[in-house]
Specification:
Length: 155
């Protein structure tokens, strides 16, 4: 039961961090085919410049500026695999990512057979997993990125 709870918590945390469109209405979702509105400001970070996308959350909340896929460490691949994180490399130009970077590899729960799935999890968890699992399909070891959300008020 504890392992099952930890799996759910890790799936939810990964989704909220790496898949922010779970929070947005369909009209303002970060769909590459929909019209996207870029922020007018460029933010300079330690590694380079970034420009965010503007979104309006559900529920009448204030808008946010979203900076997708800002690297915080070098990819843990090759000689860096299974080693402590190494600081990321600076980039040139302005990063303007339109969607989140891949999520870290993880074993996803099998919910193909709903009857069997409901034997080991509550109905609410199954409903959440149905919604979240498609968003976790893009996995890669190169997953050390942040999605940063900045409120538009008080800029």
């Amino acid at each position: 039961m504890l392992q099952s709870t930890l799996e759910l918590v890790s799936v939810v945390i990964v989704c909220l961090i790496s898949q922010p469109h779970l929070l947005w209405s369909s009209e303002s979702s970060p769909n590459p085919k929909s019209k996207q509105v870029w922020s007018t400001r460029v933010v300079n970070t330690k590694f380079g410049a970034a420009r965010g996308l503007l979104f309006q959350p559900k529920g009448g909340y204030e808008g946010v500026e979203v900076f997708y896929g800002l690297p915080f460490a070098s990819a843990p691949i090759g000689s860096l695999r299974l080693m402590p994180p190494v600081s990321g490399s600076p980039w040139s130009g302005t990063k303007m990512n339109t969607e989140p970077a891949p999520v870290c590899p993880q074993v996803l729960p099998n919910i193909d057979n709903e009857t069997d799935a409901l034997k080991v999890m509550p109905k609410g968890r199954l409903a959440q997993l149905k919604r979240l699992l498609p968003l976790l399909q893009n996995q890669s070891e190169d997953c050390l990125y942040l999605n940063v959300y900045v409120p538009l008020t008080g800029e």
